Amino acid sequence: MFGPILPLVGYRELGEVIARVNAGPRPLALYPFSHNKERVSMLIERVMSGGVSVNDAVLHVGQDDLPFGGVGESGMGHYHGYEGFLTFSKLRPVFRQARWSSMKLLKPPYGKLADRLLAFFTR
Questions:
Q1: For residue 52, what are the β-bridge partners?
Q2: Which domains does the chain have, with CATH numbers?
Q3: In a designed cystine with 75, which of 23, 70, 109, 119 is the match (CB 3.0 to 4.6 A)?
């Protein structure tokens, strides 16, 4: 059997990692493993990716409340969870006015009530 290859690339500075990732196509996901909040924040802020999972690489796709992200070549659709439903749904809003609406008071022809209100508010 043969599986995917996971390349390991060494670096000295976090800026090198950011520059290397940003030099290629936008990744579908970013998986920083660190308990250093500043490093993780720097990666999230400076590397554009479809989604981010900090300190985990397996459970990311299983979070049905998180939208399926994607940017650039990796953003070919949102097919996961609620956002996937919205992708394949076309909204059709329907507005129904009630039989009696307060808006009728604001439309002509104006009657005695409108005259009284106008007189009251313009005193």
A1: 30
A2: 14-87 (3.40.309.10)
A3: 70
